[in-house]
Specification:
The protein is 55% helix and 0% strand.
Length: 67
Amino acid sequence: MSGNEKAARRVAAVKKVLEEIGIEPERVEMFHNSAAMGPQFAQTCIDFTERIRELGPLLKSRNKAAA
């Protein structure tokens, strides 16, 4: 359990840094699946891939730090 909590805090920190530099924090996510959740894991991957596609490519011109 403590490993999951540490990972969740790190994901939150990465999201904050991404937002600060002008990158959508939605590009990083943490999901909880067990080995017995194969179909759910597959659907999670499909859904997240679609979300990233909707955000589009990461362009330097969209990044505040690159400006």
